[in-house]
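So, does this match?
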Amino acid sequence: MKLMKHGVRRELITSLVFAFCCVILFILPRKETIFTQQGKREKAVVLSVDNSQISMHGHLKYGSQNLTVRLKSGEHKGKVFAAANELRAQLELDKDFKVGDHVLVNILPDDTPEKSTLIAQEHDRSLWFWILAGSFCIVLCVFGRWTGVKALLSFIFSCAMIWKVVIPLILNGYNAIWISFFCVCLLTAVIQFLIAGVNRRGVTAFLGAISGVFAGALTAWLFTVLMKINGAVLPYSQALLYSGYEVLKLQDIFVGAMILASSGAVMDLAMDISTGMSEIVSHSPEITTKKLVSSGMEIGRNVVGTMTTTLLLAYSGGYITLLMMFYIQGNAPMDFLNNPLVASEAVKTLAGSFALVLVAPLTALCGGFFFKKYKK
């Protein structure tokens, strides 16, 4: 009973420490930006739409959409103003507003809304976002109970680390590969020890995951250089260079992004193997180290088969329209594999899968070393 109370107390203290770290990260001052938002962005609802100045170019719309909106925030809340929305025949950027839509409008500092036309910038998705996020938190905590609460805490900590630490440091000129790797090491420690506890199971999962991440990072860097992928395949990479950050190395950022992307699957596999080995030892304390490592290997083999396919589906799903274009053009597989976009996704998939394949034996070996000290 005392051991149980001690374990609960230790988990509670650990969770409170990580919660405090999350608060510290979110209140850190933000790096000074080169560009600042001009004017105020306010919420509004569309009352009427005039599409008379819009022309159709096939499936694309081009022209000015004139709106009448009622502000829902700011000093002019409740008042009705005119707003404009420019359509440039670009589906990925254009917004087509309709009556009843909730939108975000921009009011420039020197403008008087009554005498000028507001700029309708984007749909207001904040309400649905918070509904989705709140539903996720509730389901996770209800289903996972205390483990779900800790998982949610690790999720928040990961978001804070990427937004407040990784991105600012890379923008300041630090090497993106090492920053991403050290961030993954810290996140792995937080997630594994928060979920499994600071014990043999947590240490085994941590060491196995870090070993796999390092192997995957080395593979990703090597084949990114050999295949001459410059990193410009990342969205907005060229715009980032033209925004005053010419010193950034896109190739390093590309490798760093692969490290972050594959680390989640690696952590899952390491935790699965570590938990399985822990259960084997608890039910069969007399098992030898050799048999324990063999059992860990077998668990890893069964999980790796599905996890590698998971990475393939996750990465290919992001470029399904590109693959469709190659298909309708009749290109042979070797032709489109040389395309920079396809080659970059191939490196992501294979480097991540390489890390997964290696993390299984590495975690099993670590588990054999730590768990063999368990006594009946």
